[in-house]
TrEMBL record:
GO terms for molecular function: zinc ion binding. This is Transcriptional regulator, TraR/DksA family. Pfam families: zf-dskA_traR. Keywords: Metal-binding, Zinc, Zinc-finger.
Length: 132
């Protein structure tokens, strides 16, 4: 369990340490995924540069799609890693577990499922409606 049932009423140092370790572990996993994806992307580029002789439009299209997919994966991993970095910063500030929109405590169940959440469900839905 990442968050104790007393979200918003103060956490013990032990609980803060446990949350920090869990957030840091996920951040480290994402960093490893990013490094691996970067290496795979570089290999893909090297193969692409060295293997263009005789390519037709379908080959070029396939290579472009593979490159786009690799870049999309890198952006997704960086975004997720930034979310966990932000969660760690909020934990250090003492604002972790509180909504950035309304300052109410974020439900424990939401933080269990999405530990880097910065908003309660109502504020998240409101933001999504405005963005649409």
């Amino acid at each position: 369990m990442l968050v104790h049932d007393t979200v918003g009423t103060g956490r013990s140092q032990e609980e803060i340490d446990r949350i920090r370790l869990a957030l840091q572990a996920r951040y480290d996993e994402l960093s490893g995924e990013y490094e691996q994806a970067m290496q795979e992307s570089q290999v893909l580029r090297l193969v692409e540069v060295g293997d263009t002789a005789g390519d037709d439009q379908a080959d070029s299209g396939t290579k472009t799609a593979e490159r786009d997919t690799a870049q999309s994966l890198l952006r997704t991993i960086l975004d997720r890693r930034a979310q966990f970095e932000h969660a760690l910063a909020r934990l250090a500030e003492g604002t972790y577990g509180h909504c950035e929109g309304c300052s109410d405590p974020i439900p424990v169940e939401r933080l269990e499922i999405f530990p880097s959440a910065t908003t309660c469900v109502a504020c998240k839905q409101s933001r999504e409606r405005r963005a649409a």
